[in-house]
Amino acid sequence: MADGGLWRDITVVPQTGSTNADLLEAARAGAAEGLVLVAEEQTAGRGRLGRGWSAPPRAGLTFSVLLRPTEVPPARLGWLPLLTGVAVATAVREETGVPASLKWPNDVLVGERKLAGILAEAQGGAVVAGVGLNVTLSQAELPVPAATSLLIEGAASTDRAALLPAILTELARRYQAWRADPDAPGLRVDYLRWSATVGREVRAELPGGAILTGTAEDVDDAGRLVLRTPGGQVPVGAGDVVHVR
């Protein structure tokens, strides 16, 4: 795996509560970056905003990585889930032929259906990024009607043993380039190529209950979604985004 030596330990377990929670605990204990934890089944998986996340055993690719981007200014850390999304979408297209795209900030889509989710959580100077990718789930096994899986999308391959190293290779390449130069324009250009959100009319449901509607125009240097609203441009750093049309 051409990852520049980033991934120093890849562990696969049959079951755990949450791979993110396990690596956050490892981060608190001082673990170095480069840990990868893969679970065949999660019993207490988490999505964004505290939501639950689940899938049948061995039907998805569920893993987390421990990173310590100490060279990156705190204002740029919002890019980590975005570059993780680019890595997942790139690997999915190359390995399976499924036309993945990205919904800001953390969903991998096929059309308007959710194929994968990403959750990044900070612990001191560490960040744990978790990925949940639906691989062989049937229609009846999907967690919500708006989801999909590689199997449902007619993927050329549903080999999780090939998908994992492909994603990790893409992630390592982008992460190391970002860590070396957090202000490099290439990451933003790369992300916009995959974005299914920029250019769309959207509704942003913000923490605290406020709602913004407008056109998603760009992603700024901090990884925030820039909306054009009747009152002018507004950067959105967190919240749920719904594609209106």
What's a concise summary of this model?
With 245 residues, this protein is of the alpha+beta class. It is 24% helix and 31% strand. The chain contains four helices and 14 strands.
How would you describe this structure to a colleague?
The protein has 245 residues and is of the alpha+beta class. The protein folds into two domains: 9-194, 2-Layer Sandwich (BirA Bifunctional Protein, domain 2); 201-243, SH3 type barrels (Roll), CATH 2.30.30.100. 24% of the residues lie in helices and 31% in strands. The chain contains four helices and 14 strands. The protein has helices at 19-28, 79-96, 160-180, 185-194; strands at 9-13, 35-39, 45-46, 52-53, 60-67, 101-103, 107-110, 113-123, 126-134, 201-205, 211-219, 225-229, 232-236, 240-243. The strands form three sheets. Strands 1-2-5-9-8-7-6 form a seven-stranded mixed beta sheet, with helices on both faces. A five-stranded antiparallel beta sheet has the order 13-12-11-10-14, with no helix packed on it. β6 (101-103) and β7 form a beta hairpin. α2 packs across α4. The model has no long low-confidence stretch (mean pLDDT 93).
Point out poorly predicted stretches. none
CATH fold name of the largest domain = BirA Bifunctional Protein, domain 2
Which structural class do the helices and strands define?
alpha+beta
The helix content is 10-25%
User: Beta-sheet strand percentage?
Assistant: 25-35%
Order of helices and strands: EHEEEEHEEEEHHEEEEE
Task: Give the overall silhouette.
Answer: globular
**CATH top level assignment of the largest domain:** Alpha Beta
Per DSSP, the total helix count is 4
Calculate Rg over CA atoms. Answer: 17 Å
What's the CATH H-level homologous superfamily of the largest domain? Bira Bifunctional Protein, Domain 2
Cα(first) to Cα(last) distance is 40 Å
